[in-house]
């Protein structure tokens, strides 16, 4: 599958195979060096919209590339690992129109495959048409890539009808990386502080944290995650995605809640990104994990890692 979200690919040849060297994972890690929304610069084709490579037709191609999509509070990584051809609807209105090619983020979707996709938003025909208005909210966000001038009665779209609208994510310093040194087992529902995943938080600061966890649960055990820290520390929201076997689950992490992900007995990858806010008290911030339903033994594999940065 060409279009994937949160650095996870649902086209693994063997269910439960850990995707540590895939194109998608490389894009995910690369996007850690960018801040905010936008297309990742110099990654493959940078999601360039162009006329159909096999010959101009009533469609456009979107190139390989990756982007962080969202309103700044709940950003999702979108990775396009193959050229995607998108159809442009016929126009027999008597007037021209302008369509916009976008990456569409929909956080109301529970199926991760549909969370973030390339789409064409059709404009309204007019004597002097304007691009369509785009929803750009917390739970639904359209990131424009290009406008397409659609003439009345057109038969093909060429590069001359395409206007680039890509905005690039700005560069930043590479976040701090914390690696896990050995497999860790979990047998109860009591949250256990991770022995490797911790860092010191300054007073009155904001931290963005990402983690990529390789976990294994029994068929009935769920897996939950949380953070402990100095007095007054709060969650500012985030997003989580679990992939493995036949399970693809996407959840929005609301303020003050503990994310719970379903397990199905296979090796799975849990990816998360969220913001932590400290109060006037500094101290160590540490990740905690446990089973949500006690059943057998769950494992977090040594391939797991966490990244964090101060975004105050």
Give a verbal description of the structure:
The chain is an all-beta fold and 312 residues long. The protein has 2 domains: 3-171, Triple-stranded beta-helix (Sandwich); 176-310, Sandwich (Jelly Rolls), CATH 2.60.120. The chain is built from 1 helix and 25 strands. The strands form 6 sheets. Strands 14, 15, 17, 19, 20, 22, 24 and 25 form an 8-stranded antiparallel sheet that branches. It has a 4-stranded antiparallel sheet with strand order 1-7-6-3, covered by helices on one side. Strands 10-9-11-12 form a 4-stranded antiparallel sheet, with no helix packed on it. The longest helix has 8 residues, at 23-30. The radius of gyration is 21 Å and the shape is elongated. The two termini are 37 Å apart.
């Amino acid at each position: 599958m060409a279009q994937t979200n949160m650095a996870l690919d649902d086209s693994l040849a063997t269910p439960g195979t850990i995707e540590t060297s895939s194109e998608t994972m490389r894009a995910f890690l690369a996007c850690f060096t960018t801040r905010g929304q936008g297309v990742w610069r110099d990654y493959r084709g940078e999601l360039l919209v162009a006329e159909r490579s096999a010959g101009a037709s009533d469609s456009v191609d979107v190139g390989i590339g990756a982007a962080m999509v969202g309103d700044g509070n709940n950003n999702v990584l979108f990775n396009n690992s193959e050229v995607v051809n998108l159809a442009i609807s016929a126009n027999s209105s008597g007037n021209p129109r302008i369509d916009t090619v976008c990456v569409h983020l929909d956080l109301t979707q529970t199926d991760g495959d549909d969370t973030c996709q390339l789409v064409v938003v059709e404009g309204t025909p007019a004597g002097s048409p304007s691009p369509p208005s785009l929803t750009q909210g917390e739970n639904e966000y359209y990131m424009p890539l290009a406008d397409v001038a659609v003439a009345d009665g057109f038969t093909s779209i060429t590069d001359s009808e395409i206007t680039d609208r890509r905005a690039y994510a700005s560069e930043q310093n590479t976040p701090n990386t914390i690696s896990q040194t050995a497999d860790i087992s979990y047998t109860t529902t009591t949250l256990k502080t991770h022995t490797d995943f911790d860092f010191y938080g300054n007073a009155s600061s904001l931290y963005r944290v990402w983690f990529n966890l390789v976990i294994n649960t029994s068929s009935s055990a769920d897996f939950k995650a949380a953070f402990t820290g100095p007095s007054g520390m709060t969650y500012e929201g985030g997003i989580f995605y679990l992939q493995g076997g036949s399970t693809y689950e996407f959840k929005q992490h609301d303020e003050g809640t503990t994310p719970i992900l379903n397990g199905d007995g296979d090796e799975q990858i849990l990816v998360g990104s969220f913001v932590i806010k400290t109060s006037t008290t500094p101290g160590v911030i540490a990740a905690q994990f446990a089973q949500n339903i006690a059943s057998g033994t769950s494992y977090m594999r040594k391939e797991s890692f966490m990244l964090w940065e101060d975004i105050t």
